[in-house]
Amino acid sequence: MAALSTMFSGLSLTAREPTRPFRLLDLPPELRRLIYEAILAPEPFIQLDLCDSWGHFLNFLVANRQIYREAEPILYRRNIFCTPLNRPAALDTYLQMLGPIASKIIHLRIPMPVMTSINFPPQRLNRRGVENLRSIQRMCTSIERLDMDITPRDRPFFDPERTSPVLIEPILSDYLSRLDEELKRIRSLKRVTIVYTEPFDLSPTVKDAMREFGWFIKRLKPTPTPF
């Protein structure tokens, strides 16, 4: 016992000061923004068919009023909300599931609405395609950008190597006019982009027709899609 007393006689048994907890809001605004972007926009796409998987984004937002005010615009402005190309009929269901959140979406990507058939004018848009655009008009009241994918199933209609230009041009013109009429119903919409993937390409005639409506055209490299 005496030996132990001698061994520890020079030690000071003072209590350690507790470590201060990390406070996000103590950081400068520019650092907070980087953290918000890393948490809320780690990838450029959010899949609407997996809306349960991004519930943690919303949990983060409701942690604090200041965080909500600062970070919410990043969630809705830095992400593209996407519907699966193989399930265009489900858009209304996804938007209904989102409820009030749908009204905050800024950028949406959907399959391009198609025609009922390739016949001479007048053309009619596919009923589901019209319903999807009307759902966007009704529920996505803040939307500014809409990307529309030309799916592999619908490419033959736009493919100059498979379709006679004599047949396609009057049909295409009528179809695009009707599609533009529906898009104009979405009052907040500022930019429409037609998206497709290499090696497929649109003919110059089709591109010119789309650009006449003020639409943009984006040709992607053949990389795995987010949906």
Strand content: 5-15%
What integer is the average pLDDT? 80
Helix content: 40-55%
From N to C, what is the helix and strand string? HHEHHEHEHEHHEHE
**Quick one: biggest sheet?**
6 strands, parallel
The overall strand count is 6
Indicate the low-confidence ranges by residue numbers.
none
Count of alpha/pi helices:
9
Radius of gyration (CA) equals 26 Å
List the strand order in the largest sheet. 1-2-3-4-5-6
Q: What is the assembly state of the chains in this entry?
A: single chain
The outline comes out as elongated
> Structural class, judged by helices and strands?
alpha/beta
Distance between the termini: 72 Å
Describe this structure in words.
With 227 residues, this protein is of the alpha/beta class. It is 41% helix and 12% strand. The protein is built from nine helices and six strands; from the N terminus they run H-H-E-H-H-E-H-E-H-E-H-H-E-H-E. The protein has helices at 2-7, 29-40, 55-61, 65-77, 91-98, 127-139, 155-158, 165-184, 204-212, and strands at residues 45-47, 80-82, 107-111, 145-149, 191-197, 216-220. A six-stranded parallel sheet has the order 1-2-3-4-5-6, covered by helices on one side. Helix 9 (204-212) links the parallel strand 5 (191-197) and strand 6. Helix 2 crosses helix 4 (65-77) and helix 5 runs parallel beside helix 6 (127-139). The longest helix is centred in the C-terminal third of the chain and has 20 residues, at 165-184. The chain is elongated and about 70 Å long. The model has no long low-confidence stretch (mean pLDDT 80).
